[in-house]
Amino acid sequence: MSATTSDLRPTAARKRPAVSERRAVTRMTGGLGGTLLSALAWLMALVFFFPILWMLLLSFRSESDAASPRLLAAFTGVNYHGLFSGDVKIALLNSLNAAVTSTVLVILLAVPAAYALSIRPVKKWTDVLFFFLSTKMMPAVAALLPVYLITNNLGFNDNIWALIVMYMAANLPIAIWMLRSFLLEVPREIIEAAQVDGAGLLTILRKVIMPVIAPGLAATALICFIFSWNEFLFALRLTGQNAKTAPVFLAGSIAPEGLFLAHLCAVAFVVCLPVLIAGWVAQDKLVRGLSLGAVK
């Protein structure tokens, strides 16, 4: 591609939404109304974050202090001793493997599918989109028995690849819908300019489209990762001791009598930690990705 096309592609497309977003935020946060909205937003954020903070505080308390929670009590790290070894370590690695592998496969399949439904729509593309959406209308529990019988007959029960395939199939429709909305925002002029310069489909996808939809791509990948990491129903029924994931291990740590609350909070915080870190690291791309197209 020529220098003219390279200059045209991501720079202008990236600067326009950034400037528009800053102006929209400035308009919304100005004046008394903006101050009240900001205070309400912070209040709501604290309300949603408080359970995580309380769980973290209880995880550093002794079992006796956790049983009768007080704000001021001695801190201890005894609940985290040995937490990253044994069954917890295996469960975390299984969850990480299933979430990362399924997310990578979903993105690799969703990008060309979304391209075929947005940039160059195939025939009856609305029917195709409805087909993808209809797969999310069925309750997950309705598919549990057929999926269990299939994996059992194939000898894939208690195998992490059974979960990877399930998570890929479950998240693919959402990823295609999200990426299609992001691809619709790509200016056609930069694609046509690249085609005039002789760029092929793979070059256009890699060097023109990917930089423009990078925030949307990150948001889609993060959402797929979170959905896969948190999935519990299929993980409970399709896995045993070898492929047990972190949510299943966490559910197994709950005592019916409500005992060992501090230890349970420590396990729960460790299970939540990868998702919290991923969300914190990708927060700017996540916000930009989810708001892409909402602000003109």
Automatic annotation (TrEMBL):
Q: Does the keyword Transmembrane apply?
A: yes
Against Pfam families, the record matches this protein to:
BPD_transp_1 (PF00528)
Q: Which SUPFAM superfamilies did the record assign?
A: MetI-like (SSF161098)
Name the UniProt key words of this record, in alphabetical order: Cell membrane, Membrane, Transmembrane, Transmembrane helix, Transport
Could you tell me the membrane topology recorded for this protein?
Multi-pass membrane protein
- In which compartments does the protein localize? Cell membrane
Report the Gene3D superfamilies cross-referenced here.
MetI-like
Ranges for domain ABC transmembrane type-1: 92-282
Which residue ranges does UniProt annotate as crossing the membrane? 36-59, 98-117, 129-148, 160-179, 208-229, 260-282
The text of the family note is: Belongs to the binding-protein-dependent transport system permease family.
Protein name in the entry: Carbohydrate ABC transporter permease
